[in-house]
Specification:
alpha/beta, Rossmann fold, three-stranded parallel beta sheet, 3 helices, 3 strands
């Protein structure tokens, strides 16, 4: 049996609400935009509105929408490439949030 549209809508709202709470309490936000999910863009805007540092990632070759095409995005080939690029960036962001020098 398929869930009713009302139940599906409530479930999506509950899930979105929990992500909003997580973003509210986060020091920074990491968003993967390869698939172009509208929910992710909503959450990016919410995080930016709160003044959170937002790190965007996407697979190389991803067509980014015009409204984030000027925002820095980490473009990656595979998971190892993504991890290597994120390692230093996340250390720097955490250091900035905590007001300390980034660890080498």
């Amino acid at each position: 049996m398929c869930p009713s549209p009302v139940a599906a809508s409530r479930s999506a709202a509950k899930s979105r609400g929990s992500r909003i709470v997580i973003i509210w309490h986060s020091a920074f936000v990491l968003a993967e935009v390869t698939d172009g999910s509208p929910n992710v863009y909503y959450e990016i805007g919410y995080a930016q509105g709160l003044g959170k540092h937002v790190i965007l990632t996407a697979m190389k070759g991803t067509q980014l929408p015009f409204d984030i095409s000027d925002v820095p995005v980490i473009l990656w080939d595979d998971q190892n490439d993504l991890m290597a690029q994120l390692r230093h960036l996340i250390k720097a962001v955490v250091a900035r949030v905590h007001g300390t020098a980034a660890a080498q």
